[in-house]
C-alpha cells in the first residue's frame, strides 16, 4: 500500500495508534480476547502473504484538530498473488481542501506510475520476470525483524486494558470486537508513550511538510478517548478495523487542542478482485528505463535541509547535497555530502560524505548501492524518483532476505531531495 511521503509519518502514527486500539481490547467471555484478536491478525497477514489468491485493501485516514480536518488520505490497493500484479490509487487532502492523487500498476513485465502534479504516465517495461515477481507480493509485518520484541512491548502496555472490551459472536460465526476507554481509564504509561510519540510525529511532519497545519502541541498531552472495533469473519480473517484516538494538549500559547486520529481498514473482494492493465491510448506517456525510473534528465544537484527541533522551534542547521553525475546504460553514479553550520556540530555529529555507483537492473530483486557511513561501516542505500524534479534517497538499509528490507532511520534525516536550479 503506497502513501505519499509527505503524509507517511502522520499516517503511520495513526495506524500504530489504531492498531493499538484494535488489539488492546479483550473479553473474558471468550477466554483471552486479546490473544484471540492478535492471533486472528497474524492469521490474516499470513493468508494475505500466502493463501489468498487476490483481494482488495481499502484504507481511510483522517486527522482533525478541534474537529477541523487537517489531513485526510484514502488508498485502494488491489493485489493478485497468482498473476503477481498490483494496482494502487491514493488521494491526499490537505486543510485547504485541495487534493493530490497518485496511481500505480505493476506486474512482472510492466510498471506504470502517475502522480497528481504533471498528469503524465511513466512506463517501464521489464524483461526479467523473476526479478519483478517478488516485488508485487504482500509480506506479513509479523515476520519482520524485531516484530517479536514489539509484540512483547504491546503485551506489556496493554496490561489490564484487556478487561474493557465487548465481544459479540454472530450467528454466521463472525466475531465483533469493540471497546472504548475514557481519560480516567488510560494508564499513565500509555499516556507517557503517547505523549512521546505524538511530539515526535509533529516534529517529523513539520520537517517534511513546510505548510503543515498541525498544531505544535507542547504540554499537558494525554489520551482523552479511545474507541475501536474489529470484525473477524467465520474463516478467521479480519475484514474491518476502525479506530479513533483523541489526544489532548496545549500549544506554546496555552491554547487547548483535541487532535483526533481516525483510521478505517477494509479487506474485501477476496477471490474476486480483478486487476486490469491500464489503457494508455491517447494518454501523455513517458517511457523510462529500468534504472529505478531514473533517466538522464535526473542528472544534476539536489538539496535537502537538515532541520532539528531545539528550544521548542524548528531550526535549519545545515544541508544535504545529492548529485547525480550520470545515468547511462542502466547505471547511476553520484555523490552525497552533508554540511552543518558552525555551532551545531554537536546536534548532528555523524556527517556523511561518499560517492556511489548504482545499477538497479543488476538481476537482484532488491537493488542497492554500498557506501561507507561516518563510523566507517559499510551500508546499503537506494534511490527513486519522487515526483517532478525530486528524488528520494534511502540510507541505512538493512537487507533482511532476498525479497525484503528495512530502514534504520537516522535522527533528523529526511530523504526527500529537491532539484537545485542555478
Automatic annotation (TrEMBL):
Residues 1-26 form the signal peptide. The keyword Signal applies. Keywords: Signal. This is S-layer protein. PROSITE patterns: PROKAR_LIPOPROTEIN. The keyword Signal applies. It comes from the Bacteria. The lineage of its organism: Bacteria, Bacillati, Bacillota, Bacilli, Bacillales.
Amino acid at each position: 500500500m503506497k502513501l505519499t511521503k509527505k503524509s507517511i509519518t502522520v499516517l503511520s502514527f495513526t495506524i500504530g495508534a489504531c492498531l493499538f486500539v484494535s488489539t488492546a481490547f479483550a473479553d473474558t467471555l471468550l477466554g483471552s480476547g486479546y490473544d484471540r484478536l492478535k492471533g486472528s491478525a497474524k492469521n490474516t497477514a499470513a493468508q494475505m502473504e500466502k493463501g489468498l489468491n487476490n483481494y482488495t485493501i481499502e484504507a481511510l485516514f483522517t486527522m482533525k484538530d478541534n474537529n477541523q480536518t487537517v489531513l485526510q488520505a484514502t488508498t485502494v490497493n488491489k493485489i493478485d498473488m497468482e498473476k503477481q500484479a498490483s494496482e494502487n490509487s491514493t488521494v491526499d487532502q490537505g486543510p485547504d481542501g485541495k487534493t493530490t492523487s497518485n496511481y500505480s500498476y505493476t506486474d512482472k513485465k510492466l510498471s506504470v506510475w502517475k502522480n497528481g502534479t504533471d498528469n503524465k504516465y511513466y512506463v517501464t517495461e521489464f524483461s526479467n520476470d523473476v526479478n519483478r515477481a517478488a516485488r508485487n507480493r504482500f509480506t506479513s509485518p509479523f515476520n519482520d525483524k524485531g516484530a517479536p520484541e514489539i509484540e512483547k512491548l504491546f503485551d506489556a502496555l496493554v496490561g489490564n486494558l484487556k478487561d474493557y472490551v465487548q465481544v459479540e459472536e454472530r450467528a454466521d460465526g463472525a466475531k465483533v470486537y469493540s471497546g472504548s476507554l475514557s481519560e480516567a481509564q488510560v494508564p499513565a504509561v500509555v499516556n507517557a508513550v503517547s505523549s512521546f510519540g505524538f511530539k515526535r510525529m509533529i516534529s517529523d511532519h513539520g520537517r517534511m511538510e513546510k505548510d503543515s497545519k498541525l498544531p505544535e502541541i507542547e504540554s499537558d498531552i494525554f489520551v482523552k478517548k479511545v474507541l475501536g472495533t474489529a470484525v473477524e469473519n467465520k474463516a478467521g480473517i479480519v475484514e474491518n478495523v476502525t479506530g479513533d484516538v483523541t489526544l489532548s494538549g496545549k500549544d506554546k500559547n496555552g491554547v487547548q487542542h483535541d487532535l483526533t486520529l481516525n483510521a478505517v481498514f477494509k479487506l474485501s473482494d477476496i477471490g474476486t478482485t480483478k486487476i486490469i492493465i491500464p489503457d494508455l491510448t491517447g494518454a501523455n506517456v513517458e517511457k523510462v528505463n529500468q534504472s529505478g525510473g531514473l533517466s538522464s534528465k535526473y542528472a544534476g544537484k539536489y538539496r535537502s535541509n537538515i532541520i532539528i527541533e531545539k528550544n521548542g522551534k524548528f531550526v535549519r542547521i545545515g544541508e544535504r547535497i545529492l548529485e547525480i553525475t550520470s545515468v547511462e546504460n542502466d547505471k547511476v553514479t553520484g555523490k552525497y555530502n552533508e554540511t552543518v553550520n558552525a555551532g551545531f556540530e554537536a546536534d548532528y555529529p555523524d556527517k556523511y560524505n561518499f560517492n556511489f555507483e548504482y545499477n538497479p537492473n543488476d538481476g537482484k530483486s532488491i537493488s542497492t548501492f554500498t557506501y561507507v557511513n561516518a563510523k566507517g561501516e559499510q551500508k546499503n542505500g537506494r534511490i527513486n524518483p519522487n515526483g517532478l524534479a525530486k528524488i528520494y534517497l534511502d540510507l541505512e538499509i538493512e537487507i533482511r532476505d532476498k525479497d525484503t528490507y528495512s530502514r534504520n532511520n537516522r535522527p533528523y534525516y529526511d530523504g526527500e531531495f529537491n532539484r537545485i536550479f542555478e
